[in-house]
Amino acid sequence: MKVLVTGGTGFVGPHIVRALAAAGHDLKLLVRDATRSRELPGQPVVGEMTNAVSLGTAVEGVDAVVHLVAIRQGRDEDFERVMEQGTRDLVEAAKQAGVTRFVLMSALGTGADTKDLVPYYHAKWEMEQATESAGIPYVIFRPSFIFAGDGGILPTFAKLAKLAPVTPITGSGTQRIQPIWADDVGAYFDRAIDLDPATNRTFELGGPDVVSWNEFWERLKRARGIRRPSVHVPMGFMRVSALVTERLPGNIPLTRDLLKMLEHGDNVVTNDDATQTFQLPLVPLDEQLRRAA
Q: What's residue 164's pLDDT?
């Protein structure tokens, strides 16, 4: 099958691209700079999510679209322009091109009740709405925290646990997460391309283990033989810190919007629809931590 992947050069994208290529799919990769995809299988197609003409060119001749593009920080208009309007333009181009499958990366926590919490959730919700209303058979995934050894937040956590004299835990540390390994996310996207029972459904994705933030940090330190104590940092202090750090250049891991999402509640799946439908073996959390050591 001929598949267009957007966002294939980000953190999770290469894991999904390699899973699709390993399954034998013929890939096109929408990129702003062709040099960024040199290490990935697939044909680079230069274009922009903000350029509807380039999106129309990208979807020519493809059977399926895997849409991964997202931004995590920026102005409200950036989220609307890149994620919301970009997705509307992409699904319209895909519809006009006769695409028969559209697979979207959303995020766990996205929903009608959270869409006005932060711009990121609002953009993800609008992306879901555009996908569902396009008239193209679709699959939407909402993953929890995605872990890998080659990027994302886990290496940052590991460095913090190793170097900091104490491990800072935001708030009480009692809220729960359900991390999933990046290669498992890639396997889900691969299967979604042609699995009929998944058609026109939204799936929450999480790994086999649900842990509180307190438990996560203990497991991470145990996996690395670290014995440093933990300290709980009040949320108010974290908000003040975020006010400063989010004004720094680059991709800042701590922002006020991130804290809002953390405060909102647990980041765990609410059903087992994904595991029952896809029947994939998933990497346990302790093994995730060992692999990322």
A: 84
